[in-house]
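User: Can you model how 5-hydroxymethyl-3,4-dihydroxypiperidine sits in this protein?
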Amino acid sequence: MTTAREERIGRDAPAALAGRFPRDFAWGAATAAYQVEGAHDVDGRTPSVWDTFSHTPGRTLNGETGDVACDHYHRLEADLDLMASLGLRAYRFSVSWPRIQPGGSGPANSAGLDFYDRLVDGLLARGIEPWLTLYHWDLPQPIEDRGGWTTPEVVDRFAEYATIVGRRLGDRVRHWITLNELRTYSQMGYGTGRHAPGRHGWGTALAAAHHGHLAHAAGSRALREVVPQARVGIAHDINYPVAGSDLSEDAAALVRYDGAMNRWFLDPSFGRGYPADLVDWYHGIGLLDGVDLDAVADMPPLDFLALNYYRRERVVAAPVEDDWGIGASVREAQGPRTAVGWEIDPDGLRATLVRLSREYAPPAIAISENGAAFPDVVAPDGTVDDADRRDYFAAHLAAAADAIEQGVPLVGYFAWSLLDNFEWALGYGTRFGIVHVDFDTQRRTVKASGAWYRDLIGAAP
Ligand code: IFM
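Assistant: Here's the modeled complex, given as structure tokens:
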């Protein structure tokens, strides 16, 4: 007997599934600079917070670093050919800020810009549209040394950096994402300390998030100044939180959790300021003193919202002293989960897209990340039959198609990730790629999920 899940995947075999998406849909895959580039000290690049953090004992699994990663910096042409062989129509990458401004401010390092010039030209020559992320967590260390995201200085620095990159690449890059996952890097980098730069304290995390909002605004304006035709968005990680039980305290925890994790980031991005219920909560626990909350009211409009979606989250009430200060935590997954314990919920993607569309009405939405880590097994013949990852993509794309049919203006989908790569504090053992990377030899092997995705794109209108 086939399960409902198998039936769903069967129904959505490549041609049928691809036919549910619009003609000009951006079929893509994504990476981020520090996770793939390597070449950490080449052509003038200096350390970012992630170089410093990963080189500090005990911070990452097995002390792994992004020094070499996928060595993408040196293997650019071959990786571009790989993307073309997968039929990608779009590629989302991030620019490494410390390659562009090694000191964190001032004039551009032309060798760093040259790399992205070659990348963009190489994409366009292969008919692949570049989607550029300005910031995916690799803050130049000199900026962090002066306070990093917790200080207003970073806002001006980011606008300056956006101007430099815009001037150099704006004639060829149309889609720009300012920040990747402001929630994750402010909360984990400055709150729980599990990510770089490893700082602690919920007030610190809120300050980092605040300057992130302001940097997004300043960076968007700076970019539009030098690239008037730019389409500018921000990538937020919005998952699908549900109450962990029928208890009223869990329902209340869910509202706070959604406020702290999602609305605290979405509302300002859409010019609504911070959500009042959370402002009250944070004031009640002695946070936000001295923060000019009104400063986030003046936000430039988004051309598109970029959504990173991965999982369902079962939220329950918790002691306020726990990590986030909001009296809520996420229970262990109860259904199917990935190698990192994330609960798989494709319909949560549909529900999230519909929610974002109805509550915020962005002109367009792109799924800028979606994917799963599984314990891949390399067969003796070198192949990787990652059926679980293929099923994950198939089910989530079917859910995305359902959302389009419900009126969501979805314009693109970027599989996370093109390559197995440096998964931050989890190092290299956690693999998200549609292409397997042997980190000893740097050999790339397209996994079954990658072949499936290639067939899907090939069948797309
Ligand atoms: O690898 C990360 C990425 O850098 C940001 N979004 C989530 C991915 C998987 O954890």
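A couple of observations from the model: The mean pLDDT is 96. The chain has 16 helices and 13 strands.
User: Helpful, thanks.
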